[in-house]
Amino acid sequence: MNGIGSFITFEGIDGSGKSTQIKRLAETLKQSGRDVVLTREPGGSPGAEDIRKLVLEGDPDRWSAETEILLFTAARRDHLERTILPALAAGKIVLCDRFADSTRMYQGLSRGDLRHIVDQLHSLMIGREPDLTILIDMDPATGLARAKSRQTAEERFEDFGQGLQEQMRKGFLNLAQQFPDRFRVIDGEQDADAVASDIANAVLSGLA
Ligand code: TYD
After folding, report:
1. Measured in angstroms, how far is the CA atom of residue 5 from the centroid of ligand 1?
2. Is this prediction's pTM over 0.90?
3. Ligand 1 atom with minimal separation from the 97 CA
4. Residues with CB under 6 A from ligand 1
5. How buried is residue 133: exposed, middle or buried, by Cβ count under 10 Å (0-12/13-18/19+)?
6. pLDDT per residue over 9-37, tens digit each?
7. Which of 13, 88, 102, 170 is spaced 20 to 30 A from 177 at the CA atom?
């Protein structure tokens, strides 16, 4: 593939199995001879990884919801400039664990309705949507149990609780309806092999 790469994002509630599945997809694509860049948000470039530490660790109430949106967007801008766009320009497939849809949901829904601010800032500073978004959909009770069992320092968002995760799940499904051209919804409650094969089919049918 020359010139134009493919930008593929993974979304879903905490514990939905995104991170495992995105690695499996990266392997599948590499085995079929494709040039793949696997990255994540917040993070994915040195500057954005620094911002990741700020937003995911420490006292979550030390800034307002609006400031948090600015921080996530600043991280995304750096990631886009330094990692995503150069890889796409080199004709690579970029697989990204979360992107702007996560900000639309987490910052746009969880502390009041701030979606309009998220969207305005996105069009001003990011202005790029993925070519394909894989949404791994699952019951928050399952996702939350998985997320809690991992016990990392990054507990900021995983402390949300089931009510909010339920709201996130609905929000993601609504987004999928809002952007049907780029979203594919995958049933994350199946066993991991079945999830991986659904994802591979969705992606391979979309790639040239
Ligand atoms: P991630 O590392 O994907 O965690 P998980 O594997 O548990 O899904 O994301 C870390 C957290 O950051 C996650 O709880 C969602 C949150 N987040 C936002 O709140 N806004 C954003 O824009 C992004 C990209 C992530």
Report:
1. 25
2. yes
3. 3
4. 14, 18-19, 41-42, 56, 72, 97-98, 102-103, 106-107, 147, 157-158
5. buried
6. 999 998 899 999 999 999 999 999 999 99
7. 88
